[in-house]
Specification:
mainly alpha, 3 domains, 5 strands, three-stranded antiparallel beta sheet, Arc Repressor Mutant, subunit A
Length: about 350
């Protein structure tokens, strides 16, 4: 019986398990050795991806892995807190499909994803710029010209499946630039935006214009800009304000230079957070998954976008601003229902 897809959930619940090649786990382990991937996932993130890829191989690549945290921790030799942080980092960077279980102790459905920009870099090695070797290359051509060339050569770190006697396809520079622009803006999951842009017939120039305008305006988080790209249609003006969501109260764009927050303001924020956590302690948020919170309280799109990378409420322990915004929304909803 197919799984029921939950709308507006934190992840794509009930998604079809992708088709795998028999050497997929080996391919993933090779990718984990790339410097860019290692820096993105961290040591325990790489550890988690390796374990899941190995379990997928044990399953015969027939379906996603069904596993509990209690099963994963001894395989990784980590604590619960370290596992939660590693999983959050993998989900946030687009390396992991994760469908948390509805009840504690039940297995979650999980499998490895390879982000679009990593796949493109392995398919088209000329894009790879992370590994360079500096040295001297000397060559002699017999015939019309003879010469010596000295300089820096760039070589790909890894080519997954070389195809002899077949020329590599030429990458489209415009789409490559769009992927690069999204990553620089802070949008790590680029697969769906690129897929929707192409499906809608949107020109890469429009996507670049949207990214350029968002970088200059410095009003929206990467999550909102990603949604704007997904909904972009041919002929739209990147600066058309009606096509943008309301600006974020505090944007997550790394280029934004926010005024330094005083210690008094931080103390006030933490005090409000503690008060609201005490007020709503009976709701049992600590034991809830983020998709359940989104569905039960009907969080608005801007909060859903910010909460998307975190599978559970516990995973937001280092995001006091996000917790405060969600609790304030819940408070306003309850006040409205009491006055109704």
């Amino acid at each position: 019986m197919p799984r029921k897809k939950q709308p507006d959930a934190q992840l794509d619940f009930g998604a079809d398990y992708p088709k795998r090649e028999p050497w997929f786990a080996f391919h993933v382990v090779k990718l984990l050795a790339l410097p860019l991937v290692a820096r993105t996932l961290g040591a325990q993130g790489c550890n988690l991806i390796r374990v899941i890829a190995t379990l997928e191989d044990d399953y015969g690549y027939n379906d996603g892995v069904l596993v509990t945290d209690e099963d994963l921790r001894p395989r990784m030799a980590v604590t619960e807190k370290t596992l939660v942080e590693a999983r959050r980092r993998c989900i946030e960077s687009g390396w992991l499909h994760y469908e948390p279980s509805s009840k504690k102790g039940e297995p979650s459905r999980i499998w490895v994803k390879i982000p679009h920009h990593i796949e493109m870099k392995t398919k088209f090695p000329s894009w790879w710029r992370n590994s360079t070797t500096t040295g001297t290359t000397t060559g002699t051509t017999t015939g019309t010209t003879t010469g010596t060339t000295t300089g820096t050569t760039t070589s790909p770190s890894y080519i997954p499946i070389p195809i002899p006697n077949t020329p590599s396809p030429s990458p489209t520079p415009d789409w490559a630039e769009v992927v690069k622009g999204m990553i620089e803006f802070g949008i790590q999951e680029t697969d769906k935006p690129i897929e929707r842009l192409k499906a809608n017939g949107t020109d890469p120039a429009l996507a670049l214009g949207i990214l350029r305008y968002a970088s200059e305006a410095k009003l929206w988080s990467p999550g909102r800009v990603r949604r704007r790209l997904i909904n972009a249609l041919p002929g739209q003006d990147p600066q058309e304000k009606r096509l943008w969501m309301p600006p974020d109260l505090v944007t997550a764009h790394p280029a934004v230079q926010l005024p330094s927050t005083s210690s008094d303001a931080l103390k006030q924020r933490d005090k409000r957070l503690r008060q609201l956590e005490f007020e709503f302690s009976d709701l049992g948020l600590k034991a809830m998954t983020m998709p359940a919170i989104v569905e039960q309280f009907g969080l608005p799109p801007e909060l859903r976008d910010k909460a998307r990378p975190y599978p559970t409420w516990q995973a937001t322990d280092r995001q006091p601003g996000l917790r405060l915004a969600i609790l304030e929304f819940i408070r306003d909803v309850k006040r409205g229902s009491n006055h109704a």
